[in-house]
């Protein structure tokens, strides 16, 4: 039977990880470390922080698992920013365990998409706008619920992409599984009386970004979420 490590050993492990993390954060703030830079050697970290080789290696391994460090055999460890996927996975699990209801979920999603929209109006990046335009066309031509669902999902993902905010994108990625479920339920029950205004909200959001008409898109986005409540 596997025994639990002593409390002081657990604290030591946490402290080691925190020491290395805080040291690296300090180096970044001082401009001594930048994205893609090679980290100090294990020996340097041992001397700087007063840690054993095993402790340093374990701390670096944890940082690698989090997506902040990449170890290259024979070359050393490098500072990277690949934490988005891990962050999304953790948040997704938190939301599942929290079991937020549909209203809470849609309120959060509306806030995030509204923030992305405001940025998209200012930035108007061409590729995401092209994706949104193609998604609207696909929605108009969709004959089956699955086709409409895929096109609608593409539109909203492209809207988030147009906002060019990595944190919003990471949170929305974490919401995607639950969002796809709610979207499937909503579109499966959609009748023509609701489908027409719902499609129109997408057209107006796209037009608002293309014409830099902030108020038009705000109203369309608010109407969109009222329709899918």
Automatic annotation (TrEMBL):
Matches recorded under Pfam families? FCD, GntR
What the entry lists under PROSITE patterns is as follows: HTH_GNTR
* SUPFAM superfamilies on file: GntR ligand-binding domain-like (SSF48008), Winged helix' DNA-binding domain (SSF46785)
Domain of life per record: Bacteria
Q: Name one GO molecular function term.
A: DNA-binding transcription factor activity
Keywords assigned:
DNA-binding, Pyruvate, Transcription, Transcription regulation
Q: Which residues form the HTH gntR-type domain?
A: 14-82
PANTHER family per record: TRANSCRIPTIONAL REGULATOR, GNTR FAMILY, UXU OPERON TRANSCRIPTIONAL REGULATOR
**Name under which the protein is recorded:** GntR family transcriptional repressor for pyruvate dehydrogenase complex
Q: Which organism is it from?
A: Allofournierella massiliensis
């Amino acid at each position: 039977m596997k025994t639990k490590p002593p409390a002081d050993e657990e604290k030591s492990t946490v402290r080691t990880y925190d020491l290395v993390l805080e040291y690296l954060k300090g180096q970044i703030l001082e401009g001594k470390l930048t994205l893609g830079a090679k980290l100090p050697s294990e020996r340097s970290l041992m001397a700087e922080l007063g840690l054993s080789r095993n402790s340093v290696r374990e701390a670096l391994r944890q940082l690698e698992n989090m997506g902040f460090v990449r170890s290259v055999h024979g070359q050393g460890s490098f500072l990277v920013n690949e934490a988005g996927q891990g962050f999304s996975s953790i948040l997704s699990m938190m939301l599942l365990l929290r079991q937020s209801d549909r209203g809470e979920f849609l309120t959060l999603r509306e806030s995030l998409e509204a923030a992305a929209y405001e940025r998209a109006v200012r930035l108007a990046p061409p590729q995401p706008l092209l994706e949104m335009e193609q998604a609207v066309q696909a929605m108009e031509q969709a004959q089956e619920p699955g086709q409409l669902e895929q096109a609608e999902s593409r539109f909203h993902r492209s809207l988030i992409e147009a906002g060019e905010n990595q944190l919003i994108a990471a949170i929305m990625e974490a919401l995607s599984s639950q969002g796809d479920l709610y979207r499937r339920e909503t579109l499966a029950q959609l009748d023509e009386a609701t489908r027409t205004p719902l499609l129109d909200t997408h057209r107006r959001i796209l037009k608002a970004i293309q014409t830099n008409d902030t108020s038009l898109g705000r109203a369309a986005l608010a109407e969109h979420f009222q329709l899918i409540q």
